[in-house]
Write the structure tokens for this entry.
Amino acid sequence: NIHFGQIVPPENVDVIMVAPKGPGFMVRRQYEEGKGVPALIAVHQDATGKAHKIALAYAKGIGATRAVVLETSFREETETDLFGEQAVLCGGVTSLIKAGFETLVDAGYSPEMAYLEVLHETKLIVDLIYEGGLTNMRKYISNTAQYGDLTRGPRVIGEESYIAMEEILEEIQSGKFAREWMLENMVNRPVFNALTKADEEHLIEEVGKEVRGMMPQFKKDADKKPTNAPVKKPAKAKARK
């Protein structure tokens, strides 16, 4: 709102930002465990001369200084955060998972096997990347997996993907995405609601509930089905709609 001019603060107030690099529930969980989620701080307007100290105090208050606090600008945080969400962390990851799932199911593999291979195992790999980067992850996978990673990965994320990412970043930088999202909210989110509903009804969601229902650690997500409940197998299921 500040960066794209939707809020114009009076000149006599401090305008600061504290942006934890994680969802709210994780910020709270880490805080309660005596840990912290990394955060960014920024000062847009320093009316009192104490804005920087206040931002640091807020960061400390939510536990971020137990991890790391980096200084940035409103522009940099806003644009990189939106890009990360859209192209990689949310939009990129979910689209990649669905594409992999649909490819396997449409080729005749069972939806349950496809779910385990392209969604369930994602956490196991991401945890290794989170702990020590891409090189660290490759220390713990087989040579076969690493060779496939290095030679086939660039075919999935190729030149067209880079072009799409550049276009997405340009839409963010120009304010086009912000205007689109504000308009979407003004008309009660028809596109947002339709796309959300479509994804909620995707085959991967139904299969995921059934597979997780057989795993004790996901008992809450099993819709009260016994853990030994048989998995329904859609006949020649087509994942792509």
